[in-house]
Amino acid sequence: MVNFIKNIFSKSKQGIGIELCPDRINLIKLQKQGQGYKIANFITEEVPEGVMEEGQILDLPTMSELLESTIEEHKIKAKHIATAVPSREAIVRLIPVPDGLDDTELREYVNQEAGLYLPYPREEADVDFQRLRSFVDEEGETRHQLLFVATRKEVTDSYISVFQEAGLDLDAIEVSSFSVLRCIRDQLQQFTPSEAAVTADIEFDSTEISVIVDGVPQFSRTIGIGSFQIQSALSAAMNLPPSRNTELLQGMTLPVNTGDSMTMGTMGGNNPGTTAMMKVLGELADEIRRSIDFYLNQSEGLEVAQLFLVGPGSSIGQLDEFFMQRLSIPTNQIDPVAALGLEMDEEEVPVVQRAGLGVILGLGLREV
How far apart are alpha carbons 155 and 157 in whole angstroms? Predict the structure, then answer.
């Protein structure tokens, strides 16, 4: 069975996390140091265009070859490996189940009921689940809340095949948003059960939105705007050639209206590139607002207390101020390395690149 969950905040035997992205392969290994952790290895390699798009691996042989050559070139000994499928490929639901079922009975029950939560046939899905809390329903019956996760077999099979062809065995596959949650566990603990936190993981070609209440993901949505779309708008406005390398965004700062004056960014307030970027970011903010409103309209007594920005596209300076003004929600840009208190040489990964390490660090934490 594919292990999507195991425990959202679990840690197991020593191993490595490997993230497959449309633009890069990221690999990380953490090691215990005192009461915390240290990054023992971090490797990132470019992925050519067309190998992976919109969360799906299109060219399995090429991805396998890239993965195998990366492992061999850096002499990585990989025994226990965790990877993640993009949240857009997963179905995550909170479902009620009868109380008093043992593990075997619970799995049988979930297998029987899974079809109710799937938009495709049960036999085409890999399914996993985790018990959460017990509660009393409207009829006074004690029930258990279950975190249900599923994805198409063809998706998980493609990931398994890539690693097998590279001579590697997967210990676990999880959902990328769960990896991010593991990185911000301490930050999430500050909220009450009546407060929701939202993560916006701005990846290469999309943004993954997750609404978290009491530490548990309640709702997710994928928006087709990522760092590539932001940079493409910038490049077109500045008459620069198109590029898949989004490093141009790193270290840039948005002009933000502070009320009395305009704080000018590195590109200048009237710069056409900045204007084009802010138009795309405005569209992203509007979609985040729609996602939040959709969830809140189905939930009574909840308010959104915080928006966390993570992912490669979140490294743009003053992006938190931009979203806070646009959405009227307290917003923080998360540096996963700092959030976890990890030791990391800036020469190895510059500070502006650390925002993009949320998924891979979450995978590394799972395996340390």
Answer: 5
Contact 5, 13 (CB under 8 A): no
223 beta partners: 207
Report the chain's C-alpha Rg in angstroms: 21
Domains detected in the chain: 1-90+152-184+335-368 (3.30.420.40), 188-333 (3.30.420.40)
99 and 120 Cβ atoms separated by less than 8 Å: no
CB 159: neighbour CB atoms within 10 A?
A: 22
Beta strands per DSSP E along the chain: 16-20, 24-33, 36-46, 52-53, 56-57, 81-85, 90-98, 125-136, 142-152, 170-175, 195-202, 207-213, 216-223, 256-257, 262-263, 303-310, 331-333
How far apart are the C-alpha atoms of 299 and 329, rounded to whole Å? 18
pTM of the model: 0.90
Query: Can you give the pLDDT of all 368 residues of the chain as single tens digits?
Result: 456 555 444 444 457 999 999 999 999 988 887 777 888 889 999 999 999 998 899 999 999 999 999 999 999 887 789 999 999 999 999 999 998 899 899 999 999 999 999 999 999 999 999 999 888 888 888 898 999 999 999 999 999 999 999 999 888 999 999 999 999 999 999 999 999 999 999 999 999 999 999 999 999 999 999 999 999 999 999 998 888 888 888 778 898 775 433 333 444 456 888 999 999 999 999 999 999 999 999 888 899 999 999 999 999 999 999 999 999 999 999 999 999 888 776 667 777 788 999 999 999 988 77
Backbone φ and ψ of 135, nearest 5°: -155, 165
Q: What angle do CA 231, 363, 23 make, to 5 degrees?
A: 25
- Bridge-partner residues for 16, per DSSP? 81
Instruction: Kindly state the tokens that stand for 332.
Output: 């923080």
